[in-house]
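Q: Sequence in, structure out?
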Amino acid sequence: MVNQRTIDEILSSLPQLQKETFQKLRNLIKEAAPETEEIVKQGKVVYRLNDRDFVWISHFSDHVDLEFAMGASLSSDLLRTRGNSNQNDNVRHVPIDNFDMVKSELIRLVKKATTIGFEHCPTK
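A: Exactly. Output:
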């Protein structure tokens, strides 16, 4: 993943379907958690809550993920781990294959994540 400086640069680098998914995720987060701040960090669009990374949108060669900083504290069949030992144990992601099919669950997850806070994340 290339470290882009702006959201426009990130979006312009994506294939059309990923760009549409990315925009839908941005809108969903802004609607479900309007108190978050949107920034670009390490080539990802990151949403901050209480001065901490909250959720972010990652893009890969063939798909887009919505990642939750405190995902281990959330419950959903959609949430996945990276399976990589050097990743943060708290982070969980949802690969977005069909946005419309998972939209309502993503809204629920984003709203729930705003209420649980960072202190509830399990650690090793």
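The chain has three helices and five strands.
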